């Protein structure tokens, strides 16, 4: 595991990180995915994405704050069982109901 995308990317997903990754290891499953994920085996730990993210969503794994540790697991799960990762993400961070009356 190297770098991890966390909560601040959720439902934002503006993709500034994607263009600076030298190994193209930041992925979006499909349009419905609520955030992007870094492939834990492909990431070469360069740190470029962390500096580029305007929302400070990216940390190296050892620096992920305690309250955001679930994203370490969800990110890995996304590349093994994406449906389960999406389910877990929606369980822990339900979609906002803003605007829905
Ligand atoms: S730049 Fe930050 S907020 Fe934008 S997609 Fe990448 S991690 Fe998410
Ligand atoms: S740390 Fe470097 S290699 Fe890893 S996802 Fe970020 S930009 Fe890509």
Automatic annotation (TrEMBL):
What PANTHER family has UniProt attached to this entry?
FERREDOXIN, OXIDOREDUCTASE
> What is this protein's record name?
Ferredoxin
Q: Which UniProt keywords apply?
A: 4Fe-4S, Electron transport, Iron, Iron-sulfur, Metal-binding, Transport
Gene3D superfamilies according to UniProt: 3.30.70.20
Q: Which domain of life is it from?
A: Bacteria
What functional role does this protein have?
A: Ferredoxins are iron-sulfur proteins that transfer electrons in a wide variety of metabolic reactions.
Signal peptide (residue range): none
Known InterPro entries for this protein? 4Fe4S_Fe-S-bd, 4Fe4S_Fe_S_CS, 7Fe_ferredoxin, RnfB_subfamily
A GO molecular function assigned to this protein is: electron transfer activity
Which species expresses this protein natively? Candidatus Chlorohelix allophototropha
Q: Which cofactor does it need?
A: [4Fe-4S] cluster; [3Fe-4S] cluster
Q: Where is the 4Fe-4S ferredoxin-type domain?
A: 34-63
